Amino acid sequence: MRRLFPVTDQTAAAETTEGAPGGGDREWSLAELAAAYAYPEPEPEPEPEPDHGPGGGGPGVWLRANMVSTLDGAAQHDGRSQPISSAADMRIFGTLRALADVVVVGAETVRQEGYRPARARAEFAAARQAAGQGPVPAIAVVSAGLGLDFSLPLFTSPLVPTLVLTGAAAPADRVAAAERAGARVVVAGDGPGVDPARAVAALATLGHRRLLTEGGPRLLGQFVAAGVLDELCLTVSPLLTAGDAQRIAGGPSVAVPRRFELASLLEEEGFLFSRYRRV
Ligand SMILES: NC(=O)c1ccc[n+]([C@@H]2O[C@H](COP(=O)([O-])OP(=O)(O)OC[C@H]3O[C@@H](n4cnc5c(N)ncnc54)[C@H](OP(=O)(O)O)[C@@H]3O)[C@@H](O)[C@H]2O)c1
Q1: Where are the domains of the chain?
Q2: How far is the CA of 51 from the centre of ligand 1 (A)?
Q3: Ligand 1 pocket, 100 CB below 6 A?
Q4: Residue by residue, what is the 3-state secondary structure of the chain?
Q5: From the CB of 145, is ligand 1 less than 6 Å away?
Q6: Ligand 1, atom 3, residue with closest C-alpha
Q7: How far is ligand 1, taken at its centre, from the CA of residue 70, in Å?
Q8: Does domain 61-278 have CATH number 3.40.430.10?
Q9: Which of 95, 180, 223, 270 is in Cβ range 3.0-4.6 Å of 33 for a Cys bridge?
Q10: How far apart are CA 218 and CA 17, in angstroms?
């Protein structure tokens, strides 16, 4: 792993100093990755600008997305993201989870990727405790129809209860099934669906400040459109797939493209690991 941006005197020196912390073309420790991807310290939010939408969950709440894309913009291959990922990408995926209070994910990704509960990792236990976090992030599944298999371990045996974000008009029998399985149902919309900004606010009300969404594209597109996405961690994999795969964010396009700025760029084996923050 090498840091390509920002390059400081320290990271430039580390490129040529074997084993030096902060850079160099070698595998980074999980602690180094965690430092590279630390959530920003909370600071008071300025008044939201009109074209930035209604804002997120209030001061101190940070919504980050983590997605992987091929060179030609595919967000999946054969219906999954694993074929376009890499070992380094999975290390960053795990690190981002370990930093988060909650992982927000669309129901289709849960169904297609066979989501399991987050697992506790000894390497991150002390840091999570020091940050006042539980042993793992809660998984929050966004669904309108609640056509989910509530007998799966994701719902029946997570270390912290799985959340189900849905709308007030969600089918009552499915809400009951989710709750019977042990999930916590959170209403964040007046109809069957979830309002993205309300979802962020509802998670903040539950004490979740460091939010991570792992997509999928239909859910991410709504966070983008609602103007509540603060950061995109995007892996670009050196692959071309052609075909008609989804891009990382879908749905109707926004009226004015949202501007993000590059915060950091890492590289390993031709994979680029970027962090873009909302301007
Ligand atoms: N490249 C990557 O980084 C990446 C990341 C994640 C996923 N993926 C891939 O993306 C594909 C799945 O993504 P997707 O975009 O099709 O689906 P998705 O965003 O994961 O899930 C869509 C589902 O989420 C629920 N949903 C979304 N918005 C909602 C709202 N506002 N209110 C209530 N429910 C809402 C609905 O569930 P119900 O139908 O239950 O109502 C909807 O069908 C898979 O192939 C996966 O492998 C790739």
Answers
A1: 61-278
A2: 25
A3: no
A4: CEEEECCCHHHHHHHHCCCCCCCCCCCCCHHHHHHHCCCCCCCCCCCCCHHHCCCCCCCCCEEEEEEEEECCCCCCECCECHHHCCHHHHHHHHHHHHHCCEEEEEHHHHHHHCCCCCCCCHHHHHHHHHCCCCCCCEEEEECCCCCCCCCCHHHHCCCCCCEEEECCCCCHHHHHHHHHHCCEEEECCCCCCCCHHHHHHHHHHCCCCEEEECCCHHHHHHHHHCCCCCEEEEEEECCCCCCCCCCCCCCCCCCCCCCEEEEEEEEECCEEEEEEEEC
A5: yes
A6: 67
A7: 18
A8: yes
A9: 95
A10: 44
Q: Is 99 left (phi over 0), alpha (psi -120 to 50) or beta?
A: alpha
Q: Are 129 and 105 spatial neighbours (Cβ–Cβ below 8 Å)?
A: no
Statement: the pTM of the whole predicted model exceeds 0.90:
yes
pLDDT at 57 over 70: no
The structure tokens listed for 161 are 């209860």
Residue 130 has pLDDT above 50, yes or no: yes
The mean pLDDT of 124-131, rounded to a whole number, is 96
Instruction: Report the alpha-carbon angle 55-102-136, nearest 5.
Output: 160
Distance from C-alpha of 278 to C-alpha of 53, rounded to nearest angstrom:
13
The token pair that represents 37 in the structure block: 């991807």
Q: Could you tell me if the CB of 111 is within 6 A of ligand 1?
A: no
* Closest by CA position to 107, among listed 14, 174, 13: 174
pLDDT at 50: 52
Q: How far does residue 106's CA lie from ligand 1's centre (Å)?
A: 4
